Amino acid sequence: MSAATAYSTVRKAAQPLTLRLGTRRSALATTQSSWVADQLRAQGHTVDLVTIVTEGDTSTASLSSLGGTGVFAAALRRALLAGEVDFAVHSLKDLPTAPEPGLTIAAVPVREDPRDVLVATDGRTLGELGEGAVVGTGSPRRVAQLAALGMGLSFKDIRGNVDTRIAMVHDGSLDAVVLARAGLARLGRLDDATESIDPLQMLPAPGQGALAVECRADDETTRAALAVLDDADTRACVTAERAVLAALEAGCSAPVGALAEVVEGEDGLELSLRAFVGSVDGSVDLRRSLVGPVTDAPSLGHRLAAVLLKDGADVLGEPEERPPAPAGDQSATRPRASGHSWPPDPPGANGAPPLAAPDRRPENDSTERAT
Ligand SMILES: NCc1[nH]cc(CCC(=O)O)c1CC(=O)O
């Protein structure tokens, strides 16, 4: 018996396991969880889904009053830490950037297309919506970027699952909604999208389109089984994106978008990272980018956040550190990678350069908080 135990310990990672997967009950959550479960079943493991009801699913109160998108993850994490389930699958963009003590992200599987899509009446694109069109979204990030286009759109704060939101367009109560393309893809509803929005106009949420597969940090057996699902490129991208968010959360509370892509550089593969910080009235529209080594994802994100805070210090609140660098000397914020203003050409309908915000009103800062 003891000899058999010792033997099985050596081969533990290769043993078929029986794992309990905690999942929220929404269609998106169960679809995502089932996809991960199938990947593990293909490795010979047995996976049982355990439904966990979260406050974010049952309450109709606004997300911000419940404590933000973190409420979705909180109940799953409690069940994990209590040992009721062995692992959980989250939409990475809904996961707080602070690590959860006792838990670890064992895998970040290959990401779906991270862009946002428009679902509009009459097959319209963003450019065809027109002045006064009502766009439903509860996301300050989406509102800020749409407002910055200067197209005279108006916004309605909506909640509900993906199907509910699409229905609001089809029944004519809204002109359009903006949703993550990944959610539509996973639910088989991509045909409802009328435009995949160019990241030059709308940067996705950090981590959008990616999943996080989480388990207890001390559960080596489960960790090893989940690790085979990890995609190194996706992990590097979302690590950089979330580093921007984490660094900005410390320095401002404005709407944030970020997107990293692995690109072919002169010295091999590099990370190209773009980020946006704005205000929901569209008056602040700050976009910057950096390129750096794939192995440097966290510091790339932190450096890009520092650039954003420095360049937007007057409208974004207090940056952590504000070096009194002389004009023209940007070396302190870009020790390794090259920093540049992005996008290179003025985007959007108003043709305004990223920083040309004539009516920026710093005194309005307190009304521009992300909610
Ligand atoms: N905040 C809700 C949420 N969390 C994850 C997704 C979609 C899937 C993803 O982005 O990974 C969505 C819906 C949406 O934003 O349209």
Automatic annotation (TrEMBL):
List the keywords (alphabetical): Porphyrin biosynthesis, Transferase
Keyword Mitochondrion attached: no
This chain's function reads: Tetrapolymerization of the monopyrrole PBG into the hydroxymethylbilane pre-uroporphyrinogen in several discrete steps.
- Which residues are reported to carry the modification S-(dipyrrolylmethanemethyl)cysteine? C252
Please give the residue ranges the record annotates as the region Disordered: 316-371
Q: Which family does the entry's similarity section mention? A: Belongs to the HMBS family.
Q: Which PANTHER family match?
A: PORPHOBILINOGEN DEAMINASE
Which Gene3D superfamilies did the record assign? Periplasmic binding protein-like II (3.40.190.10), Porphobilinogen deaminase, C-terminal domain (3.30.160.40)
Write down the Pfam families for this protein, in alphabetical order: Porphobil_deam, Porphobil_deamC
Q: What is its EC number?
A: 2.5.1.61
Q: How is the cofactor bound?
A: Binds 1 dipyrromethane group covalently.
Which segments show compositional bias classed as Basic and acidic residues?
A: 358-371
What is its cofactor?
dipyrromethane
Q: What is this protein called?
A: Porphobilinogen deaminase
Q: Which residues form the Porphobilinogen deaminase N-terminal domain?
A: 19-223
**Does the keyword Transferase feature in the UniProt annotation?**
yes
Per the UniProt record, the source organism is Pedococcus aerophilus
> What other facts are recorded?
The porphobilinogen subunits are added to the dipyrromethane group.
Residue ranges constituting the Porphobilinogen deaminase C-terminal domain according to the UniProt record = 236-309
| Broadest EC class assigned to this enzyme | transferase
Enumerate the HAMAP family for this protein.
Porphobil_deam (MF_00260)
Catalysed reactions listed for this entry: 4 porphobilinogen + H2O = hydroxymethylbilane + 4 NH4(+)
